[in-house]
């Protein structure tokens, strides 16, 4: 399977020496589940996109410090590419920024949430089970780092996972688009260091709660497994 990783940002330079950049985080996890995968990285924030939707069998997006509504030419180009993927029924998994941009590309709306920052571990409930959710469990607790949230869903959306903080945490569109607000690629130490780097930006009370939440178990490896299952299933359905 050939996968395209649509990179939408770089990890803060001061944290890269310890934690690596986004491609390293994703490649390590993906190759645990699909060792033979051919993974191509596209630096979309530098204007690099596939020449054709068929360059890869499926695609994933990373998170980003940018908002999907920011007037950046590369964001507009990536959104247009997502529309092409949708029309071609090409498998796509969106993460955080990609989760929000996917909704926007299909007609939804994204804004900075009145609920403020989501940091540390988010605790979520699965409300609709899908066949690719194997091994099965009815909760999905992941590390998060975001202010923006989807506020209006596109018509094709089906919400699969939600919480009191985030109504649209995992969303599926048709058989080939799926997205998650959390970060299955983040580890606890990176979350801790990222929160520390944002002292003075994130309110102190929210930071304290975020740090305390890191004592909980996280389901990052499970979500990666679900993502891989989804991509395989979507690619199979497209080929039939």
From TrEMBL:
A Pfam family assignment: GATase
PROSITE patterns reported in the protein's UniProt record: GATASE_TYPE_1 (PS51273)
InterPro entries, per database record: ChyE-like, Class_I_gatase-like, GATASE
Residues annotated as domain Glutamine amidotransferase: 67-188
GO annotation, cellular component aspect: cytosol
PANTHER family on file: GLUTAMINE AMIDOTRANSFERASE YLR126C-RELATED
Protein's recorded name: Glutamine amidotransferase domain-containing protein
Organism: marine sediment metagenome
């Amino acid at each position: 399977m050939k996968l395209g990783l649509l990179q939408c940002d770089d990890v803060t330079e001061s944290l890269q020496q310890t934690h690596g950049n986004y491609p390293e985080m994703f490649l390590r996890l993906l190759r645990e589940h699909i060792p033979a995968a051919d993974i191509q990285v596209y630096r979309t924030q530098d204007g690099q996109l596939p020449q054709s939707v068929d360059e890869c069998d499926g695609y994933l997006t990373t998170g980003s410090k940018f908002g999907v509504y920011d007037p950046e030419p590369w964001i507009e180009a990536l959104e247009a590419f997502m529309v092409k993927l949708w029309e071609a029924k090409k498998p796509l998994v969106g993460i955080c920024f990609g989760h929000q941009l996917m909704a926007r590309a299909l007609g939804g709306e994204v804004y900075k949430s009145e609920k403020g920052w989501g940091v540390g571990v988010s605790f979520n409930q699965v409300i609709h089970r899908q066949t690719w959710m194997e091994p099965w469990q009815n909760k999905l607790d992941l590390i998060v780092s975001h202010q923006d949230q989807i506020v209006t869903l596109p018509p094709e959306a089906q919400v699969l996972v939600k919480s009191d903080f985030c109504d649209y945490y995992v969303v599926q569109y048709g058989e080939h688009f799926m997205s998650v607000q959390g970060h299955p690629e983040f580890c606890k130490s990176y979350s801790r260091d990222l929160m520390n780097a944002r002292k003075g930006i994130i309110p102190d009370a929210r930071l304290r709660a975020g740090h305390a939440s890191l004592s909980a178990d996280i389901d990052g490896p499970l979500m990666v497994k679900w993502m891989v299952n989804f991509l395989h299933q979507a690619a199979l359905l497209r080929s039939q």
